[in-house]
Design goal:
Number of strands: 12
Strand order of the largest sheet: 5-4-3-2-10-11-12
Radius of gyration: 20 Å
Order of helices and strands: HHEEHEHHEHHEEEHHEHHEEEEH
Distance between the termini: 57 Å
Number of domains: 1
Largest sheet: 7 strands, mixed
Length: about 375
């Protein structure tokens, strides 16, 4: 009873304070950080990032991010998603997918490495299957900077996975294009340029010593897509703007927990579909879309003014810690790129294709894009 009372009283003010001490992303820092990482990865691969040849017609790829694996206590946002995540990894391993685990894989702001190792043995064992096939790349995010900063990180990683695993800041998948050239898929967590993530000492102190313990005690989930929407909207916008300035580059990030496909959120795509349905006078489609829009607006209310003419260069994998157990990711296989969801349907983990496009069509749209 006491916990319920405290939760009702403290949730709003503590969440407000957590957001106040966070630092909003700065556009110039985001642009500079992404450009530097991309250039270092393609010119000096192996240091901060990997450069991997990838043929989307012959090879398969799955990108998940933002699991925020915890210790199965009240603040563990991953716990409800574990079954869908484990089933998804079985599916992709059996089909020989390459797996990019794109940051915030572990929640190391609020847990010790020892607690995470103890409570995630089965999950790490599933990820290890990809490592054994040489089909795994692990990228660090802001909540698991431990892997980049701690001098004993390599020791813990060897203990978790049974062999040495290097953690990268990003990876570039270089794909062949029809004209004999190439297009790059640049994957990174997406916290670049965010002052909180880049070293705001007070914010990190607050999360570790005040907000983390409160979250555990009050069982408050801070990693939902609704948290700090203004900063996340800005970050998605800046990520898109960086990608739109590049030539033949697809940028895929996580971090915001908000899925984006071909530079459009689901809400923006619904508005486009609604315009198309009105043009066709398809009353059934109009009714269905109009019934879905209010729900999507509650999740994510920002609509880019240019959504009718976006360059299809930015994707966001979403997260693996939605509070209904759903996980989302970006999948490339059989020549297609997809936004996929694994959700519980009739009690069973179920793979759902939310969005899909032919990969080469996306590359062609990017190459031929003209800003309106």
């Amino acid at each position: 009873m006491l916990k319920k009372i405290l939760k009702a009283i403290l949730t709003r003010p503590v969440t407000w304070l957590a957001n106040r001490v966070s630092s909003a992303p700065k556009k110039d820092r985001v642009m500079k950080a992404l450009s530097e990482l991309y250039q270092k990865t393609i010119t000096s691969p192996g240091k901060k990032g990997l450069l991997i040849p990838f043929d989307p017609q012959k090879q398969s790829l799955i990108i998940f991010s933002d699991e925020h694996k915890g210790t199965r206590n009240g603040a563990d946002n991953f716990a409800v998603c574990e079954k869908n995540y484990m089933t998804a990894l079985d599916y992709y391993n059996e089909k020989n997918f390459y797996f990019i685990n794109m940051g915030d894989c572990e929640e190391l702001w609020e847990n010790t490495i020892f607690g995470l190792m103890k409570h995630n043995k089965d999950v790490f064992a599933k990820e290890k299957l990809f490592i054994e096939r040489k089909a795994y790349c692990k990228i660090f995010g802001n909540h698991d900077l431990f892997w980049d900063n701690d001098p004993l990180a390599s020791v813990y990683l060897r203990k978790i996975y049974g062999e040495a695993v290097k953690i990268y800041t990003g990876v570039v998948l270089r794909t062949p294009s029809k004209d004999g050239g190439h297009a790059d898929i640049f994957c990174t967590h997406g916290h670049q340029g965010d002052a909180q993530s880049d070293g705001n000492a007070f914010s990190k102190w607050f999360v570790s010593y005040v907000w983390g313990p409160l979250q555990i005690f009050l069982e408050i989930n801070t990693n939902t897509p609704a948290t700090n929407d203004n900063d996340k909207t800005l970050h998605n916008l800046y990520m898109y703007e960086w990608s739109a300035e590049q030539k033949n580059v697809i940028l895929i990030t996580g971090h915001t927990h908000q899925p984006v496909f071909c530079s459009l959120t689901h809400l923006e795509r619904l508005y486009l579909n609604l315009e198309e349905a009105h043009a066709k006078n398809d009353q059934d489609a109009i009714a269905k879309i109009e019934s879905e829009i209010p729900r999507r607006r509650r999740e994510y209310d920002f609509v880019n003014n240019s959504f009718r003419n976006m360059k299809a260069s930015y994707f966001n994998s979403g997260c693996c810690c939605f509070d209904d157990g759903t996980i989302t990711g970006i999948e490339i296989s059989e020549g297609n790129i997809r936004l996929i969801k694994w959700s519980t349907v009739n009690g069973q983990p179920t793979r759902i294709v939310a969005e899909e496009s032919v990969f080469n069509d996306v590359v062609e749209r990017i190459a031929n894009y003209k800003k309106g």
